[in-house]
Structure formats: structure tokens, C-alpha cells
Amino acid sequence: MIKYGLPILALLGVLLAVYTVTAQNRPTPVMPPVAQPASAPYSANVPGAGLVEPSTEFIAVGTHTAGVVTQVLVKAGDRVKAGDPLFTIDDRALRSELAAREAAARSARASLDRMLAMPRAEDVPPAEAKLLEAQSQFSDAQAQLAFFENLPDKRAISANEFSTRRFAVATANTRVEQARAELTLIKAGAWKPDLDIARANLESAQAEVERMRTDLERLTMRAPVDADVLKINIRAGEFATTGALTTPLILLGDTDTMHIRVDIDENDAWRVRPGAQGMAYIRGNSKLSTPIQFVRFEPYVIPKRSLTGSSSERVDTRVLQAVYRFNQKDFVDRNKSLIFVGQQMDVFLESDPIGDARFGTDPAQAAKDLGGSRN
Prior knowledge:
Elements: H1 2-24, E1 45-54, E2 59-61, E3 67-72, E4 79-80, E5 85-89, H2 92-116, H3 124-149, H4 159-188, H5 192-217, E6 220-222, E7 227-232, E8 239-240, E9 250-253, E10 257-265, E11 278-282, E12 285-297, E13 302-303, E14 318-327, H6 328-335, E15 344-350, H7 353-359, H8 363-374
Antiparallel strand pairs: 1-10, 1-15, 2-9, 3-5, 3-8, 4-7, 5-6, 7-9, 10-14, 11-12, 11-15, 12-14, 13-14
């Protein structure tokens, strides 16, 4: 066993090692792509990665006032018109305060109306009667004074009594003037400054009512434009906060006309011309394509946003963003398929073949040639 077994085992081990090495050195078969990539439709073109977005861009709907959501009136995919309600916030506290403000406004209105209605018809006769009474007392005092003044013998009345009668006449005359002034005041109605104060109080109360109604109206969030509901991140019973949120409460956008935001590498930015034609292809099926029309350039070149998460992405790469548009209905009629917001597309933009031939596609060589042409 030792004489023949060990050599046999060693030979088998060598054969196994040779087989293993041979098997591992075989070339790995190349797997075909899941979908054929899109091919450039132009002889001179600039490639870019496009992201589909609404023509209005993304509208993140927030709330003016923080509170508990009582009702969500739309669902994802709905089409809304400008001014249509989206969701409501609990408004019970504001409604009770509005009722108090409306009562204060009614009180201010009643106070002004009361002053405008002055004098009351019931207030004039008592004042007139009081004036007549004062006049009668004045006449009586005058008659008594005249009686004493006409006495043939002045010794019949003391000097003190005579003085008292004279002062009684003056007092009665004063009461007549007072009654006449009170009657004139009643007939004159409300004083203009008092009316101005009453009007100001009414305007202030009405302004408070309008403010409360505005605050109450602001508890119903409405669509700012005609758009589609893309995403709903709030439910009835949840607390809605104010301010800029990482996750918007409701996301809106007009998808009748779609935009594609194309990221063009800064090395190719010089090759893109305003108004250049373009063609966009759906990733995963290069047969589904649509022509796109130039809208504008975003004038600020921004850092590239990594959508793949690959560690090989260059974080120092910057891109020029060009916005193009296409019609969703035309795409559906042509391809019998939909394009969704947020979908990535392969985009090819037509460039100037003469400029490419003159400057080449190497940015360093293009800069050198451009500098020489300027010199």
C-alpha cells in the first residue's frame, strides 16, 4: 500500500491541480448586453445623460401654517387646475376666532349706525320740555323780581331778600341756556370726530375679520398652476410642517409637455450650439426614441450629480445642463409607450461637424488650436 498507494495519490493530486489551473485560465465568456445601447443619429454629435422632468419643473407644495391634515383631496396621477384644493389643515381654532371677530365687527357696525341715526326722535321732546320748564322758571323769577322792584315802599322787603330774587333770575336764565344748549346738542346728532373714531373702529374690526378669513383660507392648500399630481407624501391625520422640506408634502408638475435636462460634460460643452437638434432614447429599449427641441441652457455649469453610485465616478467633473422639450402625446402616438417623470434617457445632440473637424474632440488640442487662430 505504501509502495503503490502514495505515488498514485500524488499523481492524482498533480492531475487535479493541472485540471484546476487549466479550467481557471479559460477566457470568461462575454455576456451580451441586456439591451443594445442607442447609436448616435448624427454624423457629429454630443452625447449626454438626460433626466425627464415636467415643463414647469418640480413644484414642491408646502403649507403656510403647520397643523394636522384633515383631508387629502387628490391622489397621485390626478390632473388639477390652478386653484384646485389639494389638502386641508385643521381649522377649528381659527373658525372659532373668526366668529369672535365677526361679532366684534357687528358691534362696531351697530355703534356707527347708532351714531349716524342720532338724534333719536324720542330724545327731542324731553329736551324741549326741559327747555320750556326752564323758561317758565325764568319767567317766574323775573316776575317776582319785578314785583319787588315795583313796591312803593322799599322797606317792605329786606336787602337780602331783594338780592336773593335777583340771583334767582340769573340762575333761571342759566338753566334756560343750559336746556337750550342740550336741545341743540341733541338735534345736532353725533360729533364728527366721534363718527371718525367709530368708522375707524369698524374698519379695524372688518380688517381683522378679513385677516382671519385669509388665515382660514390659507389652511386649504391649492394648486398654483395647471399640473399633474406626481407624488403625495402626506396623509390625513399626519402633522404637516412649514418651511423647506427634504420630502415635499405634494409634488406637482405639468407633464403635457415634458422637458429633458441633459447633462453635458464640460469637455464637450464647447461643441453644443443653441437651438441644436437632438434625439432622446429610452434606456432599456433604444427603439423607443423621440426628437427633442431646444429650450434653453442653464448658464451655470454645476458639479456632476452621480446617479449610478459607482465608485469610478469622477466627483470633480462638471456639466453644462441643456433643457430640451418633447410632447408626451406625440411620443405615445409614435411609440405606443409612455415616458415617466424622473426617467433617464440617452440623448444625442447635433454638433457642428465643421467645428469638430477644425478643433477636434480633444479639449486640450481644441484650446491650443483656438489660441493659435486668435493669434
